[in-house]
Amino acid sequence: MDKEALISFKQADILNSEETVIFGLNMEIFPSDFAYIVGKVGTGKTSIIRTMIAENPLYKGEGIVCGYNLKGIREKDIPFLRRKLGVVFQDFQLLMDRSVHDNLDFVLKATGWKSEAECEKRISEVLSDVGMETKAHKMPHQLSGGEQQRIAIARAILNKPSVIIADEPTGNLDNETADGIMKLLTAINRDNHTAIVMVTHNRSIFEKYPGRVFVCKDERCTESTGNEIIDLAISI
Fold it and tell me: In what order do the strands lie in the sheet containing 163-167?
């Protein structure tokens, strides 16, 4: 039986504010996929991510994410769509006024978890999954950048999402720390069959950790065949 796509765009125009940055996007992401969206700065990579999480509207073409139609999605349905996704940002976006434990507990409560015991169990599980089981009591500012990103990934997997969407998750990290984050993401992908969609402009990452590669260039985003040269240099 054919697997059903978790994310499907057909002839979709992707907007950044009012401006179309990518025309006619065709993309399907399936369970267990590890897909990169790459390209120079300003080519629309993050706009695709924002469209996936219904932050940017979709007016033209088709877009389905985890069963939700992005075209005309109702405001009240957007939180339910986002519960099916785990989102990881470059700048972590942890709540700085509360501990690691309370950051995770806040997300669980906000997404409808009621049982205190179940919350505690899930927090322990995800901290163990990302190798941060001894850090629950720490405040974010007491953690290194790599540790903060591990907590951000723990937050992203709390609700066992079908897809993790990661926007430059290694962008603020040194190479060794970035390597640890990539090993963590590939393990989640392999062990849980969680699809990963990751924006990056770091060539060494997608060469070392192979996956599907979608290239943003000249107002288009197309899947690489592996034969073309991917230019990620910043234009001066």
Answer: 85-88, 163-167, 195-199, 34-39, 212-217, 220-223
Strand partners, 221: 216
pLDDT in tens, 200-217: 988 889 899 999 999 999
Q: Which two tokens stand for residue 138?
A: 């720490």
Nearest 5°: CA angle at 150, between 147 and 154?
140
Q: For tokens 């990169």, what's the residue?
A: 36
Sequence-ordered strand ranges (E) for 83-157: 85-88
Asked if residues 126 and 136 have their Cβ atoms less than 8 Å apart, the reply is no
Question: What is the b/e burial string over 134-168, where b = at least 16 CB atoms within 10 angstroms of the residue's CB?
Answer: ebbebbbeebebbbbbbbbbbbbbbbebbbbbbbb
The separation between the first and the last C-alpha atoms of the chain, rounded to the nearest angstrom, is 49
- 56 vs 1: CA distance, rounded Å: 33
pTM of the model: 0.90
Q: How far apart are CA 101 and CA 168, in angstroms?
A: 24
